[in-house]
Design a protein that fits this description.
There is one protein chain. The chain is mainly beta. The protein has a single domain, classed as Beta Barrel (Porin). It is built from four helices and 17 strands. It has a 16-stranded antiparallel beta barrel with strand order 2-3-4-5-6-7-8-9-10-11-12-13-14-15-16-17. Strand 11 and strand 12 form a beta hairpin. The chain starts with a helix and ends with a strand.
């Protein structure tokens, strides 16, 4: 969505220039302008300018700038789930989905330290500092970014960062078009391990290679989720190129050394490595005027083994899955957007909106989403509303699982 503030400033500047140039018609003296200093001057400031006021320091020395970053995502959910047409459980309430604060420090030499810490995810998974636990839960991201001006090298990033795979997961939560990502996306991605990534362009194709440590300390009572001896290795590769003026195609691959999914001791700890040994994704992003389309076709092989015996519906180590995401959207106006999405998952964990006491493993899982996004200040401040219907079977059974979720969200970041 475009901010009208820039256009207002341009129109104001153009009007002033025209006024000055045309002043001689009033004054009768060529080249001189008469300005009425009694004319009221209207301020072009809007509430959206607040999101540009996060710079703490700017200078010409070793430290070039210091700025704050943060985001808050809250959402109301009303959902229930039926098993074989019988109510099994439900969730109705407000959820503090994400609450993060961090700092970006830019140094000389095109180097930037980027940090972001989870303060409170509330019912979304984490401690609420207003009721218990420390102010900071753990690091969300902590990495050094080097982007030299020389076009021969795009960037190098070192530290805790997103292992990007699929269009949905590669898109920041600040800018995703649905309130939650699809189940198949969360099944194969949703990880931010520690690693090194190198991005470059070759023969017109943007590419990135990465090497990772798929593990970290699991003590979330502070910011100590650093790599440790329980970790294993991971590699990643991404490539993208436009195929015409409206469409770009993407290829993603992630490898995790999990012993073909049969060795529980090689599992990647939660949120520090993917669930599968091999994950492939082919995706597209297209725009035709106000209409857009995002797609993903996903294949994942050798799911990690359970460390301890799981429930009766546990997915065995070494199993594979696949899925697809098709997400068309239409910009009704410059501030109002309609989004719909169909997603399929062969097997894996249920969709994320529900916050029941348990999330089942399912198979042959279909989800349908439709919603509206209202952009008050582009993605910096927006309202989101949507409904999602999900249907499938509990894994390894003939028990139907069906749920409906109404969701309304407030999202902001700076």
């Amino acid at each position: 969505m475009k901010n009208n503030d820039r256009m207002t400033k341009l129109l104001t500047t153009a009007s002033a220039a025209a006024f000055l140039a045309g002043g001689s018609l009033v004054a009768g003296d060529y080249g001189k302008a008469v300005i009425d200093d009694k004319m009221p001057i209207e301020s072009s400031w809007t509430i959206c300018d607040i999101f540009d006021m996060n710079t703490l320091y700017e200078g010409d020395g070793f430290v070039k700038s210091i700025s704050l970053n943060g985001r808050y995502h809250g959402q109301a959910i009303s959902q229930q789930e039926d098993l074989n047409d019988t109510l099994d459980n439900s969730y109705h309430g407000w959820q503090h989905r994400r609450f993060r604060l961090g700092m970006d420090i830019e140094f000389a030499g095109d180097v930037t330290l980027k940090t972001s810490a989870n303060i409170s995810d509330g019912s979304g998974g984490g401690r609420n500092p207003l009721t218990s636990g420390p102010l900071f839960n753990n690091w969300d991201e902590f990495y050094i970014d080097w982007e030299p001006e020389d076009n021969a090298l795009s960037y190098i990033q070192i530290g805790k960062q997103k292992q990007k795979i699929t269009r949905e997961f590669s898109t920041s939560s600040k800018k995703i078009l649905t309130i939650e990502r699809a189940a198949i996306t969360n099944e194969v991605a949703d990880k931010k391990p520690w690693g090194v990534t190198f991005g470059y362009e070759l023969m017109g194709i943007e590419q990135e290679v990465g090497a990772w440590i798929t593990g970290a300390g699991q003590d979330n009572t502070g910011l100590n989720n650093y790599p440790d001896g329980r970790s294993n290795g991971s590699l990643s590769y991404r490539a993208s190129t436009p195929i015409n003026d409206s469409t770009e195609v993407f290829f993603d691959y992630v490898f995790v050394n999990n012993g073909n999914g049969l060795d529980p001791n090689k599992n990647a700890p939660d949120y520090y490595g993917a669930n599968y040994e091999h994950t492939f994704a082919i995706g597209t992003e297209s725009e035709w005027g106000r209409l857009g389309l995002v797609t993903d076709l996903i294949f994942a092989l050798n799911r990690e083994a359970e460390r301890t015996p799981g429930p009766a519906t546990a997915i065995p180590g070494g199993n594979d899955t696949w899925g697809a995401v098709i997400m068309p959207y239409y910009n009704i106006t410059d501030t109002l957007q309609f989004v719909t999405r169909y997603a399929y998952m062969g097997e894996g964990e249920q969709q994320r909106p529900q916050r029941f006491n348990r999330r089942y493993n399912v198979e042959n899982y279909h989800t349908f989403y439709a919603g509206l996004n209202y952009y008050i200040c582009d993605h910096n401040l927006k309202l989101m509303a949507g409904y999602e219907h999900a249907t499938g079977d509990l894994f390894g059974s003939n028990i139907d699982a069906e749920s409906g979720s109404w969701m309304v969200g407030l999202r902001t970041y700076f």
